[in-house]
Design a protein that fits this description.
The chain contains 21 helices and four strands. The protein is of the alpha+beta class. A four-stranded mixed sheet has the order 1-2-4-3.
Length: 505
């Protein structure tokens, strides 16, 4: 144990420090992070999830984001560091799992490989995928070897926490009892197997019942159920499974194109692990559990039918474990050298790039605040605002947090950019039906004529296929542009988006 903490812990910590800390100079990564910050702030302010700030994510996302916000108020950097801590926890869990599986060959290098892949730009903030992975890997740890009843209990607890952080993981939680019964009913008997499954289910109910009770006591149970079931059913039916497969394939190959030193080695390693003709490592229950988990998570992602790159994060740790297991019995020197080379390529690439960027970062540490363009402008805007001015952020909605407009939001719908899409009106309907927001809420929100509209050039000028640009342009006729801040955000790999502020004429 002492050797573990003096060696691996320090190595992982040092690696994370080198390759991630320079990213603190990036104020804007994606708009999802802004939404989660607003959600976490609402919990810190004393509201239940969804009550003041509504977002289409499970309640644990609200609760986990509230931790760094509560400990270090008004600090975006603390939230990013929270994400780095999550990566450290995931690394340590991966290390423990590989130790248990006796897959010591390639163990350290594979974890550093994982951390290198996580430097992909749109994965640098603590996504819901980051948040769920510590729980998912704890589920795997307790499910690897069931020595006593508490293992079944905690396996259920952690899969429940995983689902309460990433809704699609419900598929894994639902399928696991069937997988367990198939593997153990002959060994320990059907009765004992069903008894163990029951303990697993009871463990899974513990976090769920706590959440339900909290919302029931506050008479918000309907809001909880609609937010996590009704809205998600609409969301998952926007596209087909076939659409989903093509979207994720397109996304992955786009990642390879723009980041070849990171993701082309991953592609080759996946192909080698699938076709190496060495499957001795997969004859045990433990190895079958890894395969089952991998394909269950993959299926759950496809069922979500969206195609966003960050969804793939859920697969990565389990995929790493699968690949390491498959490589344990490769005896050919050529393939061994090739595998090590492929693992090392992203590590060396990221270390070189990150070391150079970290050097620049620390040399300009005093000027870090100048990189936070939205924050700096929020101070300027606050001085020119009247007390009763209303703001509608069609993008860069982190400005609500900077201005503390979260206390008087234009709408409870936090993720405004997503909800100006053409498909979003259907997502809102379940909320309209329970009276959480009024009928035609999105149209009303856009037509409310606030004093100030904050937008990005990608939405208000360039336009996207899924956004009602004509509606936005029609609204902006009554507004004048008062400020433009160039190159605030990178989107779609190569395009830079500017921040535009409009004031009502």
């Amino acid at each position: 144990m002492s050797k573990f903490f003096t060696n691996n812990y320090i190595i992982f910590l040092f690696f994370i420090f080198i390759i991630f800390f320079h990213t603190l100079s990036n104020e804007i990564i994606t708009w999802d992070e802004f939404t989660y910050i607003l959600a976490g702030q609402s919990v810190v302010d004393g509201y239940l999830p969804y009550e003041k700030v509504w977002e289409m994510k499970p309640p644990m996302v609200y609760l986990m984001y509230s931790i760094p916000i509560y400990l270090f108020p008004d600090s975006l950097i603390s939230i990013r560091i929270f994400g780095f801590i999550l990566l450290l926890i995931i690394s340590l869990e991966l290390n423990t799992i590989l130790n248990y599986l006796k897959a010591k060959n390639l163990k350290l290098i594979s974890i550093l490989f994982f951390l290198s892949l996580m430097t992909y730009f749109f994965w640098l903030y603590p996504t819901t995928e980051h948040l769920c992975l510590p729980f998912l890997l704890m589920f795997v740890l307790f499910s690897l070897k069931f020595d006593k009843w508490s293992d079944y209990l905690f396996s259920g607890v952690f899969i429940s926490l995983t689902i309460l952080t990433r809704s699609n993981m419900i598929l894994l939680g639902f399928l696991f009892p069937f997988f367990y019964f198939f593997n153990f009913y002959k060994l320990i008997g059907a009765k004992k197997s069903l008894s163990n499954i029951l303990i697993y289910i009871l463990g899974g109910l513990i976090p769920l019942i706590i959440i339900l009770l909290i919302f029931f006591i506050d008479n918000k149970i309907n809001l909880l159920l609609v937010s996590n079931i009704g809205v998600l059913l609409v969301y998952s039916n926007e596209f087909t499974i076939i659409d989903s497969i093509f979207k994720y394939l397109k996304t992955f190959f786009k990642m390879i194109y723009f980041y070849p030193f990171l993701y082309f080695p991953l592609l080759i390693l996946i192909l080698i692990s699938l076709f190496n003709n060495s499957y001795k490592a997969f004859k045990t229950y433990e190895s079958r559990l890894i395969i089952f988990t991998l394909f269950s998570v993959l299926l759950s992602i496809l069922v979500s039918k969206q195609g966003f790159s960050h969804h793939l994060i859920q697969l990565l740790p389990i995929l790493i474990i699968f690949m390491v297991l498959s490589f344990q019995n490769i005896n050919k020197n050529f393939f061994n050298r090739l595998i090590k080379f492929l693992f090392l390529t992203p590590i060396i690439y990221v270390l070189i790039i990150s070391t150079l960027e970290s050097w620049v970062f620390f040399r300009n540490l005093e000027n870090l605040s100048s990189q936070y363009k939205v924050y700096n402008y929020s101070k300027e805007l606050s001085e020119s605002m009247k007390p009763d001015d209303r703001i509608l952020a069609l993008d860069y909605h982190i400005i609500y947090w900077y201005l503390k407009e979260i206390h008087t939001p234009t709408s409870p719908i936090a993720h405004t950019p997503a909800f100006i899409r053409k498909t979003s009106k259907l997502r809102i309907k379940p909320l309209e039906e329970i009276g959480f927001v009024e009928k035609n809420h999105i149209d009303n929100m856009l037509s409310s004529k606030p004093e100030i509209i904050i937008c990005s050039s990608r939405i208000c000028e360039d336009g996207t296929e899924n956004i009602d640009n004509n509606k936005i342009k029609e609204i902006l006729i009554d507004y004048s542009e008062i400020k433009r801040i160039n190159d605030v955000m990178l989107w779609e790999f190569t395009k830079k988006s500017s921040l535009i502020i409009y004031r009502k004429k």
